[in-house]
Amino acid sequence: MPEDDPHRTFTTERGSFCLARCACGWTGMARRARSQARTDAERHLTAARGAPGTTSGTADGTAADRPVE
Ligand SMILES: [Zn+2]
Q1: Could you tell me the distance, in angstroms and rounded to a whole number, from the CA of residue 22 to the centre of ligand 1?
Q2: DSSP code string of 5-60
Q3: 17-53 pLDDT, tens per residue?
Q4: How far, in Å, is the centroid of ligand 1 from the Cα of 57?
Q5: Cα dist. 61→7, 13, 15, 37, 46 in Å?
Q6: Ligand 1 being an ion, which residues bring their Cβ within 5 A of it?
């Protein structure tokens, strides 16, 4: 149910940097590459939507195995 998902990420530019933000108030690190900011956003979404009660231990945070809904 994406409709009531409070996490809506987008990227915004600040000077020559780009950073990911989320509607929940989360802000990612400033990145030089937008792709990096997007990766941060993906990571945030994965962590936010991921298994409840389980903190992600994967530092690399590949979202490849996230189930498609
Ligand atoms: Zn969020």
Answers
A1: 5
A2: ----EEEEEETTEEEEEETTS-EEEEESSHHHHHHHHHHHHHHHHS-TT-----SS
A3: 999 999 999 999 999 999 999 999 999 999 998 856 5
A4: 18
A5: 17, 23, 27, 14, 8
A6: 7, 22, 24, 26
